[in-house]
Design a protein that fits this description.
8 strands, 29% strand, 171 residues, six-stranded mixed β-sheet, single chain, 26% helix
């Protein structure tokens, strides 16, 4: 009996469709990686068991966001003193004036090293206003050595409700 030798052909692997997929997939994945950057803000939220938004002994500077404008107050030994009233300008919040006011306050003695501030808002203040106020109290554009840089004002932000905004009984 005679054995026949079978001629074995090597199988070719067709990778054309896989290469086409990679040509499309790689740029798409690289483009998505560039745009997936997150910004994180550290916030100090009040504890749920506290009656007020923040403890007045711990906080000495507050920005109250009202529907008609901003109020910057200083709290010292449970006494609140209004430092500036910033009404709306042409129906819009005046963020530049708020920034200028906080820069002036930061230059005063006792506030140079201060890093914390409380934002107290009335109900009905929209989210974008709150975020813009947070950005305004954190940093401001400053010119240093002929370059525009972001200087810090009060980077440690606490949030709470404005006084008199939860139906409090006033005598």
């Amino acid at each position: 009996m005679r054995r026949q030798k079978r001629i074995q052909e090597e199988a070719e692997l067709n990778v054309t469709s896989f290469m086409n997929l990679m040509i499309v997939l790689v740029p798409v994945l690289l483009m998505n990686m560039v745009f997936s950057q997150l910004a994180v803000l550290d916030l100090k939220l009040p504890l749920g068991d506290q009656p007020g938004a923040v403890n007045p002994e711990d906080v000495s500077l507050e920005v109250v966001i009202r529907k008609d404008g901003f109020e910057v107050t200083r709290t010292y030994q449970e006494k609140s003193e209004s430092l500036a009233l910033l009404p709306k300008k042409d129906g819009a919040f005046d963020y530049s004036r708020l920034s200028t006011t906080l820069q002036d306050i930061k230059k005063n003695p006792g506030f140079e090293d201060k890093k914390d501030i409380s934002l107290l808002s009335e109900p009905g203040i929209d989210y974008q206003t709150l975020v813009t106020v947070m950005d305004t109290v954190r940093i401001y554009p400053a010119v240093v050595a002929a370059s525009l840089v972001d200087a810090t004002l009060f980077p440690e932000i606490s949030l709470g409700d404005a006084p008199g905004s939860e139906g409090e009984v006033t005598p």
